[in-house]
Amino acid sequence: MILFADEHLLVVNKPAGVNTHRPDHFAPEGLHEWLSRRHGELSVLHRLDKETSGVILFGRSRQANQSLAQQFLTHKVRKEYLLLSDRRPSRQRFIAKSPNMRTEFDFVADHGKLFLVRAQPITGKTHQIRRHAAENHFPILGDSEYEGTPAPRMMLHAHRLTFAHPVTGATVTFTAPVPSAFEEPTAIHAARDMRDLLFGEETTAYRLISGAADGYRDLIVDSYGGRLFAQWQTEAVDAALYDKLPATAIYEQISTKQRRTAPQCVRGVAEERFAVRENGLTFLIGFGEGLSTGLFMDQRENRLHLLNMDLRGRTLLNTFSYTCAFSVAAARAGARTTSVDLSKKYLEWGKENFRANNLDPAGHEFFAGDVFEWFKLLAKRGRQWDFVIVDPPTFSTTKAGRAFQAERDYAELATQAVALVAKGGTLFCSTNQRTLAPGKFAAMMEQAAQNCGRNVRAIIPQTLPFDFRLAEGEQAYLKTLWAELD
After folding, report:
1. Which of 71, 77, 45 is nearest to 58 (CA)?
2. CB of 427 within 8 A of CB of 318?
3. Of 309, 401, 466, 486, whose CB is crowded by the most CB atoms within 10 A?
């Protein structure tokens, strides 16, 4: 993804389907926020539409911000885009004009049954290229807002950016390779283009196909180090699709309202457990050992949040810990962790995850049993932690037999957790309850703090990672909050 980096600039090949920045407080974050977590503070100098891929530039110094802001304002930055249309332009080369907007178009070549066009915006207004292409009767393929024929993605790519380096003054040009979906405009190519930019050796576990958002309404495919887990929400399995997926093995599961099968290895060789990478950490994965594979990948960015901290001398309580992935991230950052889960089996799995990262589990605590009972016991002992992680399953039952329901019971659960947060500490709360609105969830955290006579200094929301894409109109099921307490 990173095309160039120095102390003044970060030049990136943006994937299609990612906003430049977070559109609102509780929405999935944008590329700016995602990159800032990995590369430090960045300034947004220009923007690309969510469905546009290609070169985007961020500033890393005051000098760069001032110089490039002026270059963009005076139209001294040269931008070159490529687009595909299923309608051929009537002219070889021309300048499209409308009030306060000008775009130079150059027909490049026939592209199979499609047509490849180069576009250079002379001005820089919102949706300028898209509007001008539509007004001149060759709308961009996949641009439904401007009359484009449906396609797996909007076929607009910011191919090249040229400007004066803010310090040296030298003319520099950065080019983003043309996505493979421009060669084969299929859903699977579009999905792979996005993930290939986002992930590499440091993270080998991710969602490859995210249902309707990636063009497959009844299919979720997760990749674990090249081993694919295909979850079909239909009985009509299309096994021919597997031929188009790069995989060392493929596991298949039917998961409908009427039927849920155990994962079966349908291609390659089945393995009991194997290692994957996530942000440089190692986690062990196993199919058929429970309701999940051993790693909830949708919490990846929250684990990175811990991993990026200096937690030496700090403590963390991880409840509903499952295989202790949050604990491993915190321990790698220097924290002493306590993991609580109902299952001794999963806690042992968690200890294996510690060992896989050269962390000695003997230096950490692992408590088996009902989290609700442990909350009472730990509070009675007067114990507190700098960080408390509360990530209950969507459905659970207390030792007393009461079913836990997030909308009804989360405030009470969070109140018990607040009592275990040390002064100036942080409470992390997460829920998969789709019907619980993010604003209401945040209000529950505020109320939980008040119930314990505490104040919330800040609430930092987080939701699904980029690879867990959302179809138009779809709401994120995962809601997570970092609540910093007084």
Report:
1. 45
2. no
3. 466
242 pLDDT band, cuts 50/70/90, is very high
Would the pTM of this model clear 0.85, i.e. be above it? yes
Cβ of 165: how many Cβ atoms within 10 Å? 15
**Rg of the chain on CA atoms, in Å:** 25
**Taking 70 as the threshold, does the pLDDT of residue 401 lie above it?**
no
pLDDT at 23 (0 to 100): 85
Pair of tokens at residue 11: 């030049």
Is residue 191's pLDDT more than 90?
yes
Centre a 10 Å sphere on the Cβ of residue 202 and count the other Cβ atoms it contains: 10
d(CA 44, CA 432): 32
Strand partners, 385: 421
Question: d(Cα 116, Cα 87) in Å, to the nearest integer?
Answer: 10
Give the per-residue SS3 of the chain.
CEEEECCCEEEEEECCCCCCCCCCCCCCCCHHHHHHHHHCCCEECCCCCCCCEEEEEEECCHHHHHHHHHHHHCCCCEEEEEEEECCCCCCCEEEEEECCEEEEEEEEEEECCEEEEEEEECCCCCCHHHHHHHHCCCCCCCCHHHCCCCCCCCCEEEEEEEEECCCCCCEEEEECCCCHHHCCCCHHHHHHHHHHHHCCCCCCEEEEEEHHHHCCCCEEEEEECCEEEEEECCCCCCHHHHHHCCCCEEEEEEECCCCECCCEEEECCCCCCEEEEECCEEEEECCCCCCCCCCCHHHHHHHHHHHCCCCCCCEEEEECCCCCHHHHHHHHCCCEEEEEECCHHHHHHHHHHHHHCCCCHHHCEEEECCHHHHHHHHHHCCCCEEEEEECCCCCEECCCCCEECHHHHHHHHHHHHHCCEEEEEEEEEEECCCCCCHHHHHHHHHHHHHHCCCCEEEEEEECCCCCCCCCCCCCCCCEEEEEEEC
pLDDT at 67: 97
At 149 the pLDDT is 97
Could you tell me which of 13, 4, 99 has the C-alpha nearest to residue 59?
A: 4
Q: What average pLDDT does the chain have?
A: 94
For residue 280, what are the β-bridge partners? none
Instruction: For residues 456 and 271, give the distance between their C-alpha atoms in angstroms, rounded to a whole number.
Output: 46
pLDDT above 80 (res 92): yes
User: What local confidence, expressed as pLDDT, does residue 398 receive?
Assistant: 57
CB contact set of 247 (below 8 Å; sequence gap of 6+): 223, 226, 227, 228, 267, 268
